[in-house]
Write a structure and sequence with these properties.
Elements: H1 3-8, E1 10-11, E2 27-31, E3 35-36, E4 41-48, E5 52-65, E6 72-79, E7 82-87, H2 88-91, E8 97-105, E9 110-112, E10 121-134, E11 140-143, E12 147-158, H3 174-182, E13 185-186, E14 204-205, H4 207-215
Parallel strand pairs: 1-4
Antiparallel strand pairs: 2-12, 3-12, 4-10, 5-8, 5-9, 5-12, 6-7, 6-10, 10-11, 13-14
Length: 227
């Protein structure tokens, strides 16, 4: 590929599902490792059916550079709720070597909700950078550098389910009531046995838990005007 083409070459769009079904009270990982940077700009588009309220994000990035010339690179995860990314200039990365950073961020906090009529949420990963070169006739442009992200992983923490949402569908309704009834009585003594309907954590599923569920009947994870 000649220099002119390399300067404008972009990574082909990639479509993938990062999960399926609504969820809450858990962590969701979007792992793009390893990510080559063999173009000066690249964009990956992905879709996911995961819904929930993002309450925290962590970006783990490790970049391996074999480039002796000056260089810069950044990579951004872009969600409907915001953007979080890593920038070599901000981190002070330069020269050859392996560079790592863990970024804790609330920049993505908000409700992850698909647009009306669609089950999918769309998100993007965009990277750009390279080494500067002088163009014939004057001017400066970038050319791809010798390096890659050996690790580029985004972890989203989602808010807990509404109290009484026993099947984690993000609302409290008849399905949760049926689960509570099926678990009625003293909770199993074995630690690996689940007793999710024990909402009061008193070791039994009883009328106190039923009252808790009824008090939250109809609760939904995403309040207006967000949903």
């Amino acid at each position: 590929m000649n220099l002119a083409k390399r300067l404008v070459y972009a990574t082909i769009l990639a479509f993938a599902s990062a999960g399926h079904a609504q969820t809450c009270g858990t962590e969701i990982v979007f792992d793009m490792s390893p990510l080559p940077v063999d173009s000066v700009w690249g964009e990956y588009m992905s879709i996911t059916s995961i819904q929930g309220q993002i309450i925290h994000a962590r970006l783990d990035a490790t970049f391996v550079s074999n480039e002796e010339n000056p260089w810069s690179i950044y990579a951004n995860f872009e969600f409907p709720t915001g953007i979080v990314g890593v920038d070599s200039q901000t981190e002070g990365w330069k020269g050859t070597g392996t560079f790592s950073v863990a970024i804790e961020s609330d920049a993505l906090n908000g409700f992850l909700v698909p647009p009306s009529g669609s089950p999918w949420v769309t998100w993007f990963l965009i990277h750009a950078g390279g080494t500067p070169v002088e163009l014939p006739g004057g001017g400066i442009a970038l050319t791809p550098m010798d390096g890659l992200f050996s690790e580029l992983k985004l972890t989203l923490t989602l808010a807990d389910c509404p109290t009484g949402d026993l099947n984690a569908d993000l609302q409290v309704n008849i399905a949760d009531l049926l689960i509570l009834i099926s678990e009625w009585g003293t909770c199993p003594s074995e630690p690996d046995e689940l007793c999710q309907a024990d909402l009061t954590a008193d070791g039994a599923v009883n009328v106190e838990d039923l009252l808790q569920l009824i008090m939250n009947w109809g609760s939904y994870w995403c309040p207006p005007p967000f949903c």
